[in-house]
Design goal:
about 200 residues, alpha+beta, tt1808, chain A, six-stranded mixed beta sheet, two-stranded antiparallel ribbon, 6 helices, 10 strands
């Protein structure tokens, strides 16, 4: 009996074959559907609307999307197609080719991931890929407190983690909990507490 192996797709094939309905990422050569609970979506939407309000209020040169896919490279050199729960993208980059279906290859300004059952992806794989790509700011919103104790404390508590690229291209992490006001490099005037985000 001969075992069959599924042919791995290239990144270009992923872009061509990705279904138009639903949300998908490209992981290890396969198209993977991304699904979320309503609670997860509420937290992500809260951030999307909050960022949009700041962009409008301050007339910043960004757009905010929850469907944008961009290409990352793993430490082993494998192409991935990631779709953050919220993406803040330089408006000039976004509008440089508006008729294009392809994923972005430039680093975006800010990526937000809201944790779910595949929380390891957010804390390990995406953290590494986003850092390597040069995404300036990366948020992990762990409203379920399911991540690692090194980030969430012991006992683990819901936390907003903000990773900022330093001069050496490495992420430095700051944790926000409870009534602590969020500090963002991209949105320095943002007036939100961790609790407002975590209980959205």
């Amino acid at each position: 009996m001969k075992a069959s192996t599924k042919q791995k797709l290239t990144f270009e094939q992923f872009l061509e074959q990705c279904p138009e309905e639903g949300l998908y990422e490209f992981i290890d050569g396969e198209i993977v559907e991304v699904r979320a609970t309503r609670n997860h979506d509420d937290v992500a939407d809260f951030m999307l609307f909050g960022f949009n309000d700041e962009i409008r209020r301050l007339n910043l040169n960004y757009v905010v999307k929850n469907t944008a896919v961009f290409r990352t490279i793993t430490a082993k050199g494998i192409e991935q197609g990631r779709k953050p729960d919220v993406s803040v993208i330089n408006k000039d980059v976004w509008r440089s080719n508006r008729a294009e279906y392809s994923a972005l290859v430039e680093p975006i300004q800010l990526a937000v991931e809201v944790t779910s059952t595949n929380w390891e992806d957010d804390y390990i794989d995406k953290l590494d890929e986003y850092q390597n790509l040069g995404i300036t700011e990366y948020w992990i919103i762990d409203y379920l407190a399911i991540g690692l104790r090194q980030y969430l404390g012991n006992p683990k508590v819901p936390t907003v983690l903000i990773f900022i690229l330093d001069a050496e291209g490495k992420y430095q992490c700051t944790q926000f909990r409870g009534s602590e006001r969020i500090v963002s490099r991209t949105f320095p005037e943002l007036v939100l507490t961790a609790e407002q985000i975590l209980t959205a």
